[in-house]
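hey m, so remember when u said the tokens were messed up on ur end? i reran from scratch. heres the input so u can diff it against urs
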Amino acid sequence: MQWLNKIVNDLIARHPDGEIVVSSGVSPSGTYHLGTLREVLTAEAIAYAVRQKGRQSRHIHVADDLDVFRKVPADVPEGFKQYLGRPLCDIPAPDGSEQSYADYYLSDLNIAADKMHTDIEVMRAHEKYRAGFFVEAIEKALAKTSEIKQILETISGHKVDNQWSPIQVVEDGYLKNRQFISMNTDDKTLNFKDGEGKERQISYAKGEVKLNWRIDWPARWWLLNVAGEPFGRDHATKGGSYDTGSEIVKQVYGGEPPLPMPYNFINRTGDTKKMSKSAGDTITASALLEILPAEVVWFFILRYAPDKQLFFDEGETLMRLVDEFGELLAKTDKSDADKQLIDICLHGVEQPTVSRVPFSHLVASYQAALRDVDRTLEIIGRTEYAQVVQEDADIISNELHFIDAWLDKHAPEEVKFSLLDEVDQSEFTAAQLTFLKELGNKVAEAPEDADGVWFHNAIYELKDSTGLAPKELFTTLYKLIIGKTSGPRAGWFLSILPRDWLIKRLKLEA
């Protein structure tokens, strides 16, 4: 956790007194997903770690719901093209409910924030603009338009149009870039030219005016006194929005830029592009937390520094991730960094959800028990994890609820199975039937405590007498029991099955 401690120490050194505000911000233009959570949880972890140092800290998450609706995401009806150009807070929800489009997607973050035990403070941009919170920031920006233009051109290297202004206006329900004419600071109105060249007047104290993104961001830093903020690496490029924002907050608002905390993206395993709301290649934050305990999500996000690119999928990566977190919890020689990471991951958690039984064992045992929790505990209790079952039965039971949802929605086909109710003997060769019968006889004489190693050896001992290749021994067993050509480790799998049922199945009597 060296990266986290460095950030916290830098923040405290920069701000020796008072409250330390950490900010994050996302536009609710589509699903809040794992990639989105990296920003939110990084900010939350920093605020938490600051408080652990004895300092006051807040994490303010700005929902940029006054942003313009720019693109129809893949999971939204095509008919929503009619709303392109309007603020997210002013268009209907994709599900046809009475809430707004922004409310619809923000609700997913609220659900996730609760499940993740965060202390996040969500600020709605449209509410702040319409309540006059940004009035002074708008006035300063318009009064120093020439200075802002020079900053943008000098730092970003892009020429700004002569009629450019630092604001957008709401014209007939749509956010537009229009020519600014004048401002009246007494009644908080401004005049602009509309699309037909006619002069109009609107109030900038009631949310009819919005600062352009590159100005809105530093204005927010100044208004909220932001000390630090994570943001995507695309904003950290030379001449990017953080660089221009740093100069704007200093020269226009007389403030200081926050400590920069750029983070890398999260890609789906095998993909070269980051998860995208508009492309629809994501899993929502709330849906993710139905299949993965909150502490494992924390672990995934925080165990590496923010600048490391991460990869995720709901199959192999998820399975490995759960096991790695379980191994961390079970370590007997935890380092200070281990303890700090575990503390953050488990804060607000009454009882850990990840047990000391390997994930693959739980998945196979649960399915062999026909998804019965008590039966699963009984099965695992006959393995080398018998002591763990006695000590962690409640934890295992809780973990199985996540596994149940994972099997239904995201588990790879190769790990899913169910015991066959019936077997067609004609699907097996004579050699295969001989092998199964001889193995059935061996199992009938097996000691009561025969483990996976015993069963594995028993299978191999029959390769010479049956003439079957080693691989065919195992594919025959999987075909007999689960109707597939592969499955869990065969010896271990046979050891957890009910002995009487297994003997009858091997002899094709059941």
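this time it looks ok to me. The longest strand covers residues 20-26. if urs says something different then somethings off w ur setup not the seq
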